[in-house]
Design a protein that fits this description.
Four copies of one chain form a homotetramer. Chain A has a two-stranded antiparallel ribbon with strand order 1-2. Chain A has five helices and two strands. Helix content of chain A is 61%, strand content 7%. Chain A folds into two domains: 11-76, Arc Repressor Mutant, subunit A, CATH 1.10.10.10; 79-120. In chain A, strand 1 and strand 2 form a beta hairpin. In chain A, helix 2 packs across helix 3. By secondary structure, chain A is mainly α. Chain B binds a DNA duplex through residues 10-12, 36-38, 46-50, 52-53, 55-56, 66-72.
DNA sequence: GTGGTCTAGACCACA
DNA sequence: GTGGTCTAGACCACG
């Protein structure tokens, strides 16, 4: 992996999102160990301080815990993960609705179109 | 306006999308004149060649016509605009579904969630 | 081969024509690989961007397909090639008629003269 | 008029052709006076020596005569003009046939196609 | 290696 | 002024 970040969000928040998505997808199972700050920094092509900040934020969010001398570990906390999932979901839906409005699709149409799209792939 | 583009799509395609959206929204009425290549380049903070390419693509799509020494003009063609709107819509929906799947929202859930979001704003 | 282009047509269109003619003549069989953008640029004595543009146009015409990191390949499509041949032919005939008119040869005379020329070579 | 010459033929020969065509088309009637070497040089955007050479060639061809202190005049000589017309015509036809062969049009087809083209414009 | 995109800056034709 | 073409050189993603 290398540098590929949106300009809008701070990089460290994008890394937070990425780690959370990895956990939600099961790429990072709990209570598994995350890559070290240094390894992650190389992997993401950013400064170790940025990773440090991301891990700090994840700890503040109660998603991971750091154990002195051992590393950073995913916390088993399904309720919290569910909350995070919901807020990510809300963000995605909002963005989606905005884009649809932007090209002039009325709200009543949106549901219909999503239905069509999903049923087409059956 | 200044530099603010996604990293995924080529800039010239993002400009194409933008112009199409402006037309769909009536910001660019037909047969109105688009900003000149040079003006648009300044406005968007990109190289004139990039605008040239975008305008060329729009001409190829039959959305605008260019008149040598005069400028680039929107073509009246509602049927075509409707087609383009549909394909933009499809692209947006597909992107939306992908993102939702990525965070682990099942397809049956997606409809429900969109419903909830839309009804909340009433 | 080196720089030797007409001044009237854009160079990239002349390259497009040349590639099409090579395919029609069987110099470029399908699905053969065209020279890389850089090699072709050296061969034709032009800038790689000009070749890129020509290959892009050929792809838009469905004459070739490009595979990222692999190269540009001729597509098997005899019907399309026949269409292109017809439009090239029309262009050549129109140019011919214009030149003949320019030196004052009447249309009824043109047929006769072409006949004479062809029969002379028997 | 300005610089616009093919790369294949010497510029002075292209000017010779141009003058002959002008005469054939009646733009230069005989026994009219041609522009002075200096004027023609400016008009064609070339060095006066090049025009001088072209006029010399035209004189050698017996198409014009130069009268000391008066200028260069078209010679009334219909037979010669007819000859020149024929050789120009031959050149054009040969070029035409070559191009048609190049894209794979058989000689028997050529006549048919020219017919089609001419009758279409009726 | 491949093709694809972008910038910087030039020159052209047309009006 | 306008759009259209071309060069030179850079960086990117993909394989």
């Amino acid at each position: 992996m290398s540098k590929e970040f949106q300009s809008s969000k701070p990089i460290y928040m994008q890394i937070v999102d990425q780690v959370v998505i990895d956990i939600l997808q099961g790429k990072q199972k709990s209570p598994e160990k995350l890559p070290s700050v240094r390894d992650m920094a190389v992997k993401m092509g950013v400064n170790p301080n940025t990773i440090q900040r991301a891990y700090g934020e994840l700890e503040r969010m109660n998603v991971v815990e750091t154990r002195r001398g051992q590393g950073t570990f995913v916390i088993e906390n399904n309720a919290l993960l569910e909350d995070i999932k919901l807020s990510l979901q809300e963000e995605i839906i909002e963005d989606f609705i905005n884009k649809m409005n932007k090209i002039g699709v009325k709200q009543t149409e949106i549901i219909t179109q999503v239905h069509h799209f999903l049923n087409r792939g059956i």
